[in-house]
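FW: tagging you since you asked about this chain on Friday. Here's the raw sequence from the shared folder, copied in full. Didn't touch anything.
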Amino acid sequence: MIALAALALASTVTASHVPHIRSAVPIIAAALEDGARRSPSFRRLIDLLNASDVIVHVVWDLRDRHDIVGRLVFVTDAGTVRYVRIFVSPALRPADLVGVLGHELEHAVEIADRRWIRSPESMRAFYGIIGIPRDAHGEVFDTDDAVDAGGRIRRELSVVR
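HL: got it, structure written out here
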């Protein structure tokens, strides 16, 4: 399961058995489970993150911005674990939420693959080099890989199974 509720398992569960993608929001948790069940690409992202040192918390983005439906921020480096947070718009329909989550999880994998990203500043430097600027201030970036991941996941979800 991919939900914060997994933390309530028996105290014998070790950190390596706790999912690295967590949300206390039932709709988000359901979207994570739906993506894992229906999309091989989404499952691959989950597997990569579960094998990494990156923990992802997914929450609603309550800012009133209609131009951004998902974003990832670096939270902290705790030594052996790095934490990122994904914010998603509560205005998203469930069908769109999984695709946005896949897009943002690809960004989390990009960070997981670069162990030297250990702060908001190093993350900003990385995306300043490889990212596609999405705002006039150079604060919002995207990548071709994340755009491709979101599109691929949407296509996989559209296949009737």
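FW: The mean pLDDT is 86.
HL: agreed, and Residues 4-158 form one domain.
FW: great, closing this out.
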